[in-house]
Amino acid sequence: xxxxxxxxxxxxxxxxxxxxxxxxxxxxxxxxxxxxxxxxxxxxxxxxxxxxxxxxxxxxxxxxxxxxxxxxxxxxxxxxxxxxxxxxxxxxxxxxxxxxxxxxxxxxxxxxxxxxxxxxxxxxxxxxxxxxxxxxxxxxxxxxxxxxxxxxxxxxxxxxxxxxxxxxxxxxxxxxxxxxxxxxxxxxxxxxxxxxxxxxxxxxxxxxxxxxxxxxxxxxxxxxxxxxxxxxxxxxxxxxxxxxxxxxxxxxxxxxxxxxxxxxxxxxxxxxxxxxxxxxxxxxxxxxxxxxxxxxxxxxxxxxxxxxxxxxxxxxxxxxxxxxxxxxxxxxxxxxxxxxxxxxxxxxxxxxxxxxxxxxxxxxxxxxxxxxxxxxxxxxxxxxxxxxxxxxxxxxxxxxxxxxxxxxxxxxxxxxxxxxxxxxxxxxxxxxxxxxxxxxxxxxxxxxxxxxxxxxxxxxxxxxxxxx
Length: 468
What we know:
Layout (H helix, E strand, L loop, with lengths): L2 H4 L8 E6 L3 H11 L6 E6 L8 H4 L6 H4 L2 H8 L4 E4 L10 H4 L5 E4 L5 E2 L12 E3 H8 L16 E5 L3 H11 L2 H4 L6 H8 L5 E5 L11 H8 L4 E5 L8 H8 L2 H14 L8 E6 L2 E9 L2 E14 L5 E13 L2 E4 L3 E2 L8 E2 L4 E2 L1 E2 L2 E3 L6 E7 L2 H4 L8 H15 L14 H10 L6 H16 L11 H7 L4
Parallel strand pairs: 1-2, 1-4, 2-3, 4-20, 6-14, 7-8, 7-14, 8-10, 9-10
Antiparallel strand pairs: 5-15, 11-12, 12-13, 16-17, 18-19, 19-20
Helix pairs in contact: 2-15, 7-8, 11-13
């Protein structure tokens, strides 16, 4: 062969890429690779769950079906002949770093950030106190959370945080179950919500309305919920001079505050459920009795300038107590270490420099290894934010091709990884298997006028696929 024919990324020597994680970041990385001019590549996805799409399936709220429509793009990527899917395969258990390194020229870690951050306050581990991430996974039918003990027998729930996830869980708790019955919410969650005694949800934001992470569309959705009074204390919307200046330079914050003031001035309707939004408060203790939470102690905050000119919350020493039977903390996600992959314990991300995995000792790049999405940059942005992030990492991958030696020719046979998986994880899930489950869920949902009826246990998934 000529030198051109043996160069990585050509027909004679296709670039072999493993993507660990089949969520949005992984799919956008695959899409960027497939769009590279004159690049011949073979891409293998490895996903812990049998089902692809990550947070689009297991994180996006069921009443936001339009957001889930992005999976049509991902479906087209999976259908590309250069792409294979291996689900029900756990990196670090079923396949190891040392297994993949000899079989792939480049490895991309796209595992997201599935663990939650803690508030680190007394009482956080009492029964009734749990991360919003777990509640989200529960109502979305994640097989590892479907048996979570969710008690909705109380009248008041406190949600700590006012970001996207906090808004989602608060909305699901008070939304009409007749509306939820038209979505792909897990059946068992819908049944539990129908029996729910929750009548009031209080959302707590540690800073003010200008600093809130939600969007005008999300605020408007909260204000238009059927049979729900959206309650905001007008005093919470009085802005200090620094917040006024910050808002003047931010159109989103300006519109948020405009909408919040409209809702604050709206008279109560006497609706059966209430959603209260409070600013400049932080939980300092979860109080309980006999091992179960009964209340949340909160402290009033004020905004002060930090050393970089930003506004941070500082406690004032004024306290209040909210009686509540459940608290859902939504103070951020974090990634967890992967076996054999350098990890930044301070930032909860894979050690990397602009998407190139870097060694812990000297930050030198680890040849042929990359990361994308939340495990690269931390849990920030929306689903679409992962696209430019992935494109940037793929650009680094392309820049490295010229100096990357690549794997040996005897390891280039794509069947080698299948042989390994048949030995290690014989019930791994192929693209054909996933499509069988996908069709089944859609067909079952259609019978009830729903987009899909999710299968929520691993044994049942494998049974539908004909693998058990």
